[in-house]
Write a structure and sequence with these properties.
Strand order of the largest sheet: 5-4-8-7-6
Radius of gyration: 50 Å
Largest sheet: 5 strands, antiparallel
Strand content: 5-15%
Distance between the termini: 148 Å
Oligomer: single chain
Structural class: alpha+beta
Helix content: 40-55%
Number of strands: 24
Shape: rod-shaped
Length: 779
């Protein structure tokens, strides 16, 4: 028998022929405490061994070749000889064995330590173990059992093995001779093939659990006496306690890791609200703790509800499975989990049709639904390259993890929605504040003429509907005010009114302003931008000067009107909007359609309910009300106190045709308020005489070739007097009045030009034209 020299050789050998997970070592001539000499006086050679790997079902054999001269083994030098050792030395060796195996915490490596250390306590020719945790039997055979001509045999089920029977019944078995044993026929035949003559098998268990069984075999018959079996029971008990400690340590360590994982998930939810970064951190933590090869989280697409791989931690992957992947339709396992809310564990047989798993070499997959508040938010998937990698214990723990991940996903999605709404409201607030600042002049529609009443009646008719409205009329007639009236009287009045002047935006940026763009969509697009249609969701979009929209943008606008959907620039994702469109123009769209400058289908879609806003000259009875309104407005703004509007000034303003309509009237009144130093409004009516007149308004030619812009009413008044002369007289009086107030000083900070709000040269020109002369005496 070889003593500790064999132990050194055993440490060098790892030859396995797998019959399951009982580990059976065969060796020749081991003797307790020292190396045995052969008959010729030489030591057995422990290093001359060779390694063989043969697979028979689940059987793995370690072939340890321990060569020695033939016939050197004595009866006392085999497994039969350990009973002759002194009891005190054996128990001391047992204590050393217990100390050695307790120092190792890994159950998988513990048996190899046992084989190495057991030789100093128990002599044996073969040793085997049934591992209860893996439910397999592993065999390790030496060369003596693998002589030429020995057949490894066919696959041997674990139920036919002696080690499994001992574990199942928790009873020891001593077989004095395999030749007379009848209970395990196939096992005995296998022992005979390997040269085993006697076997002792004992259960390994503690008060807490069953751990398996230990089998010691000898090539000699009747190798194990009753006393030797009792001592072997003590050895097995020590081994069982050490293995139980190792398993408890591993369980404690694993529980600690899993508690740390739950804590990491909680901290991730608190510290990271970006959904993709959050899921990546969670996937990495789960993969590390569960010791699997890949973890991914799939979330449904907002439109199609198909699952897309949103986050993935798969460092050893080949790139076939990657973030952003939309699994093919034939991959229904994750979709089934998402639909039913039930987890699924899959092995290689279930994955035979999964091309993605086959390409990556994944042999085990576990899909778990992410459920929060009875709503499935996505699927958590774990993959392993090993077969049947996920146990029932793992499934119970991962179910808890999935609930925590679902809460994290729900919180992050809610945060994203709140952030999006907050940004939307912030943009809307800035936009509306800008609108309020720029549109305070048009808070009300002023007037009571029949023409205006007809327009307001149309507004009341169309406002409650969601129909598209086309407002047309000359520039400055208040088309935007009419659009605001339509919006305010509609059911959308509490939501945003978003306007866009199509003529004020460069052609290349108009589409971005209308529909928005993604970051990097074009040069200078450094951030995502929300378009006007998206901003006006459930509100109203007012497109002014719609006749200026380029032809290439018109089809996209038509799609928004018909389908209520669009794509941002640089994005393939379809956005939906519920915005009402009100358009305005001062151009003849019918003529533009005939000239093919405007799409006919878009024109017909816009011209659902047309409203024509009358020009200011068509409702002269509204001019006095507008004048008084603007005077009060600009007086408050400039901190002036205008109390009187001369009747001749008002008559001149009423008779003027106002080619610029209300906008021109507003500007004239603002200028008049500025130049009026006292409580009387002073309007430079002389500037109104030479304005061009719209083609469709009546004109009269004057003798000096200029155009009389007073219209039909001026022609009637001309029968009594010349209106032009009236205006010149009014202007002359205002200039003289200003000169008198400034003591006939024309220029300078206290001169008449400053008081009248005009340049010195302009005032001198008007004085020369009106025949006003300043003498040295001041007259």
């Amino acid at each position: 028998m070889v003593g500790c020299a064999w132990a050194a050789a055993a440490r060098k050998s790892a030859n396995v022929i797998s019959l399951g997970t009982a580990k059976l070592y065969f060796r020749r001539g081991v003797r307790q405490g020292r190396a045995a000499r052969t008959a010729s006086g030489s030591f057995l050679n422990p290093g001359a061994y060779r390694r063989h790997h043969n697979t028979v079902g689940e059987m793995s054999l370690d072939l340890e070749e321990m060569t020695a001269p033939a016939g050197t083994a004595s009866p006392g030098g085999s497994a039969r000889g350990f009973s002759h050792e002194l009891p005190g030395g054996r128990y001391e060796s047992l204590i050393r064995l217990a100390t050695a195996i307790r120092a190792h915490r890994d159950p998988e490596k513990l048996f190899h330590v046992l084989v190495r250390e057991l030789c100093s306590v128990v002599p044996f020719d073969a040793i085997a173990q049934f591992d209860e945790s893996s439910n397999k039997v592993h065999w390790h055979l030496g060369e003596v059992c693998n002589r030429p001509g020995t057949e490894t045999g066919t696959e041997l089920a674990k139920e036919e093995t002696l080690a499994w029977w001992v574990h199942l019944h928790q009873q020891p078995i001593v077989i004095a001779s395999v030749d007379t044993e009848t209970r395990f026929p196939r096992m005995m035949e296998r022992f005979k093939e390997y040269g085993v003559r006697s076997v002792c098998a004992l259960p390994m268990s503690t008060v807490h659990r069953r751990l398996g069984s230990l089998l010691i075999a000898s090539r000699f018959a009747n190798a194990y006496t009753e006393d030797e079996v009792r001592f072997l029971s003590l050895v097995v008990n020590q081994i069982a306690l050490a293995m139980d400690d190792a398993l408890n340590f591993r369980a404690s360590q694993r529980a600690q890791e899993r508690l740390e994982l739950l804590l990491e998930l909680t901290n991730s939810v608190i510290s990271n609200l970006d959904l993709r970064d959050l899921l990546r951190a969670i996937a990495a933590s789960i993969r590390r703790v569960m010791q699997c090869d890949g973890v991914g989280v799939a979330l449904p697409e907002p439109d199609s509800n198909r699952l897309r791989l949103y986050a993935l931690d798969f460092p050893g992957g080949k790139g076939v499975i990657r973030e952003g992947l939309l699994p093919p339709d034939e991959d229904r396992s994750a979709a089934k989990v998402f639909r039913t809310g039930e987890p699924i564990r899959m092995d290689s047989r279930d994955l035979s049709d999964d091309q993605l798993a086959l390409a990556e070499g994944v042999r085990s997959i576990f899909h778990l639904p992410l459920i929060s508040k009875n709503r499935t938010l996505g699927v958590l998937s774990l993959g392993h390259l090993a077969e049947k990698a996920f146990s029932d214990e793992d499934a119970a723990f991962l179910t808890q993890i999935a609930r925590q991940v679902a809460i994290a996903v729900e919180n992050s999605m809610a945060y994203g929605q709140i952030a999006e709404l907050r940004d939307h409201l912030a943009q809307e607030k800035l936009y509306l504040e800008d609108e309020i600042r720029s549109e305070l002049n048009f808070e009300e529609i002023i007037g009571k003429s029949d023409a205006l009443r007809r327009v307001l009646a149309q507004v009341e008719t169309v406002a409650p509907t969601d129909s598209t409205v086309l407002i047309y009329g000359e520039t400055g007639t208040g088309k935007e005010l009419i659009a605001r009236a339509v919006h305010n009287l509609s059911s959308r009045g509490s939501n945003a009114f978003v306007k866009l002047n199509c003529a004020a935006i460069p052609t290349g940026l108009l589409e971005s302003e209308m529909f928005g763009h993604e970051r990097g969509a074009f040069t200078g697009a450094i951030a995502q931008r929300t378009g006007r249609f998206e901003l006006a969701h459930r509100g109203t979009v007012f497109l002014d000067e719609i006749g200026e929209i380029p032809l290439e943008v018109q089809p996209k606008l038509l799609r928004v009107l018909q389908e209520r959907e669009f794509e941002r620039l640089g994005s393939s994702r379809t956005q939906h909007t519920d915005a009402r469109l009100i358009a305005a123009t001062n151009r003849d769209l019918t003529a533009m359609v005939e000239e093919r400058k405007f799409r006919s289908d878009l024109y017909y879609r816009l011209n659902v309910f047309p409203i024509r806003v009358p020009a200011l000259r068509e409702r002269p009875e509204d001019i006095p009300m507008l004048v008084r309104h603007f005077v009060q407005q600009f007086s408050r703004r400039t901190n002036r106190n205008i109390e009187t509007i001369p009747s001749e000034t008002m008559n001149a303003l009423v008779r003027y045709s106002w080619p610029g309509n209300i906008r021109e009237l507003q500007n004239v009144i603002e200028r008049a308020v500025i130049v009026s130093a006292g409580p009387v409004l002073r309007v430079p009516v002389g500037d109104l005489t030479a304005r061009p007149r719209p083609v469709d308004s009546p004109v009269n030619a004057l003798g000096d070739g200029r155009v009389d812009v007073l219209g039909e009413e001026a022609a009637a008044i001309n029968r009594g007097r010349n209106i032009r002369g009236l205006l010149e007289d009014t202007e002359r009086k205002q200039i003289l009045n200003a000169l008198e107030q400034t003591r006939w000083i024309v220029a300078g900070p206290r001169g008449a030009a400053k008081l009248l709000g005009m340049k010195r040269s302009t005032l001198q020109s008007r004085m020369q034209k009106l025949g006003i002369r300043i003498s040295r005496t001041g007259n």
